[in-house]
Amino acid sequence: MNIPPRYIYCVLVTAVLAVAGYFISSAIAIGILIGGLISPLFALCGNAPQHSVSPVSTPTPVAFAKSSSAASAAAAISEPDESVVISRAEYAGEVKTIYVGNLPYRANEAAIRKLFSEHGLVLSVRLVKDRDTGKRRGYGFVEMPAAAADAAIAALNEAEYLQRTLKVREANEKKEALKPEDESANSAEL
């Protein structure tokens, strides 16, 4: 039997690894030695399974139970992926925060992002939740570039979304919470 140079290379690498493994544990060294010598022998004898990779794979047909599922899947595939997300910190232009009221409770951040992205870039979506229950409270805030925000307000205010009439306007500035010393000063004046 003619021993190919590839097997000799495998034996040398196995021997080096076995010696290195001996310093850790003799059991590791024996395992490396046996595995390193036996595996190439199987490859030489042809007992090892031959794996071939075909360059072109044929698509597997998919059957849908409902035709509406097939239609929605086809629509989702044909729509361009517009899931580019830019955070407010990465955006250099003027940003406006939009208040969105009378939201359906079943609407989530992704649905609101999709709704507003029809009118421009959406930087962030925050839907307010009840602290005790964790359920959505029916309003939220969307951050967009100023021009896109104005277009979204004009298009979506009083628009119907999931059987609810949306209230969309520019958000008010956050009010500063009263500090403890301010509260004591206000109560002393009364």
TrEMBL record:
RRM domain span: 96-173
Transmembrane segments: 7-38
KW Membrane (keyword) present: yes
Protein name, UniProt field: RRM domain-containing protein
InterPro entries: Euk_RNA-bind_prot (IPR050502), Nucleotide-bd_a/b_plait_sf (IPR012677), RBD_domain_sf (IPR035979), RRM_dom (IPR000504)
N-terminal signal peptide: none
GO MF annotation, one: RNA binding
Organism the protein comes from: Tolumonas osonensis
Pfam families associated with the record: RRM_1
PANTHER family hit by this protein: OS02G0815200 PROTEIN, RRM DOMAIN-CONTAINING PROTEIN
Keywords per UniProt: Membrane, RNA-binding, Transmembrane, Transmembrane helix
Record's keyword annotation contains Transmembrane: yes
